[in-house]
Amino acid sequence: MFKILVTLAVLIGFIAHPIQSQAIQPPPPVTQTQPPFAFVEVMPVFKGGQAAMYKFISDNIEYPDSARINGVQGQVIAQFVVDIDSLTKEVKIVRGIGYGCNEEVLRIFELMNAQKSWIPGRHKGVAVPVSFTLPIKFILSDDQKSTMPKTD
Hints:
3-stranded antiparallel beta sheet; TolA/TonB C-terminal domain; 5 helices; elongated; alpha+beta
């Protein structure tokens, strides 16, 4: 009987040991050098949501004089990373239209950072950097078009 108990205890020890060594470990802490994710379980959100982001851009963007005078309209596409500290980083213009519009988009991102406007994304319960692409349209109103110089 004693041999059976000892053998049973040894078997249980061998069975339990691998289970303990394979226990789920928490994810390692995110470092600032970690490459950004494209998709995560909980994507970053502008504080107040997407409508608040577009309102923020609309309220703060200034149509550059050079673009207005030359009748430049179009879409500037910015790529950026929302980092774990609620800031946009690595902001770059991937497609611009010039005439000061590209620089104006970069200025908008600086304003966002001044207000820490983003809630970071989360993956497996941990805040992680996430990359984004955002198009920003520059469209002249009819009033702005009527003040443009006439070219013949």
